[in-house]
Amino acid sequence: MSVMFRIIRLLFVLFFIPLSLFAADLNSALYENKDSVKLYEQLLSKIDRQNNSPNVQLEKTLLYKLINLTKYPPKPAFSDLSNRTVATQKEYMSLFKQLVNYSIKSVTIQNEIKDKNDKLDFLKNTVEQSSENNPELLLYQLQYAFYYKTLKNLQAELEYFNTNFEKWEKYLALQLSRVKFNTTEANSKIKDLKSRYESIKLDIEKQKIEKERLLLVSSKQDNLNRASRNIQIYERQKDEIIGNIIDNYLILFFSALKHKDKKAFEYKKMVNRWEQNFSSDKKIESSSLENIMQYILQNRFGRAKVFFNDTRHHFIYIMNYAWSVLHKPLFSISGKPVDIISLFMALLIFILGFYIGKLYKRYIAKLSYYVSNITPSSQTILSNMGYYVILLIGFFTALRTVGINLSSLTIIAGALSVGIGFGLQNLVSNFVSGFIMMFEKSIKIGDYIEISENLRGRVSDMRLRSTTITTNDNIDIIVPNQTFIQNNVINWTLADNIRRMRIPFGVAYGSSVDKVKQAVLQALEKSSIHYVRNRKVMEPQVVMTNMNSSSVDFELYVWVEGEKTLKPRRTTSEFLILIYNALYENNIEIPFPQMDLHIKDIKDTLKVTEKKNL
């Protein structure tokens, strides 16, 4: 395998080395020799004698061009502008336009230089990859020489322009003070030209509509061509009018510059604005015009003032652009476009309404401290209702800001009714229940309520959707409002804060019932436990309720009020302790479950079993 690899490598070297030896090089004598004309003439004679090349005509054409380019160099693209006499408005405008044209020409030359460099690189690679026997080698060499000499001329022209352009700009700025500008005539012409501009715009629109009409009716091609030519004619006339408007604004610009009037900045802005109306491609011209006007401004006003004015102008432009973006329609509602600023204003109004609602609730809360006849329930109704009214006003105002007609809300309500029927019915039920509770006042802030055996506590907050209950363990429980409407709710403090409690207890059989009653009631009367006393209809009672298997059951009926009603388990505990001590002191037995077990002797049982087995 290694021997085969060596043979292949040897063949590769033997095949490609001769090719590299016969590769061609660029003939520098064709473009760098001082006597290149004589060389070109010799090549012409040689081509005429041989006449066997397939590119004879192209080669001869290139040689003639090279001879002419060498004998008769092209006229310079630029001449010295600093020698021109400038005394009148017309001469100054001519000098300014010439300088603008030179600037445009320099950009064109830069593009040509780039193009020539690209072509030279391509031809160089082509020549270096060709062999000496290539019949097109001479053609490539001649093309390279022609592009090379052309490139040198262009580079010389561009260097001359770059060297003298600043001098020409200074000369233009210096001549400004010598010229008298007719601003009255310029203003009059601008007014007339603007009127003609608007008229010709209408003519162009008419012609475009006419062309579209011809296309719709499938008119003849001649008619379409005629309409297209008319449009082109009007477009050229429009560009000519725009050019005249710009010229007259330039006169006003130069006059303001001469007197160092700040209106020059406005006139410059007008020139830039009218340049945007050209129908043809004027980007290079606009850039050149802008640069020269900027230089003259800096020369008259100073760089700092021009910089700050441009900064202000750019800031205003950015603000105007941002404003236009914010007012750009995003979508439409009922035919009215909705933009970003409308959405932002709607959101701001809604947030402001929410914030005002919060402030209103705080105001009502502070007001309750100073006005004694406002109950917590009334405070809740006032704060919540006012809060939601403010939110609704903010919401509807935000809708109007966006552009939604409130009369069309019936359609939205109809659409929402479908959603309510499927998924929002509980939410709506809670809201409606909240309104009912607030106006009915069956449950108020501060009431102690019981919903189930394990859910009781004081009402600490009431909202449209839910109510907060704080238990005696200081646990806040959020209960949906529909629970209070659909289920039975015990309100311990609805009418007053007095409640009768039933304390169950039992005694052993054989105890005297009268003694039990007397012991408990006497102990209750002597105790310091707070309960309702000295009211005939609310006197404590001991009632026998049942006779169980191991006890006689009694209940102590006692009326309590105030905080005692809100802590039933603690209150029950106090009365049970009192009853226990009273029974214990009077030697009344308190029963407890008992079971008697009767056990026989296991030995007697075993003897009886053995006798039976025998």
Q: What string, H for helix and E for strand, traces the elements in order?
A: HHHHHHHHHHHEEHHHEEEEHEEHEEHHH
pLDDT averaged over residues? 79
Low-confidence stretches: 1-22
Major β-sheet strand ordering: 6-5-4-3-7
Please report which band the strand proportion falls in: under 5%, 5-15%, 15-25%, 25-35%, 35-45% or over 45%: 5-15%
How many helices in DSSP terms?
Answer: 19
Largest sheet: 5 strands, antiparallel
Principal-axes shape call:
elongated
Derived structural class: alpha+beta
The percent of residues in helical segments reads 55-70%
Q: How many whole angstroms does the radius of gyration measure? A: 55 Å
End-to-end distance = 112 Å
- The overall strand count is 10
Would you mind describing this structure in some detail?
Helix content is 66%, strand content 10%. It has 614 residues and is of the alpha+beta class. Among the domains are: 9-178, no CATH class; 183-302, no CATH class; 498-585, Alpha-Beta Plaits (2-Layer Sandwich). A five-stranded antiparallel β-sheet has the order 6-5-4-3-7. The longest helix has 40 residues, at 89-128. The protein starts with a helix and ends with a helix. Mean pLDDT is 79; it is low at 1-22.
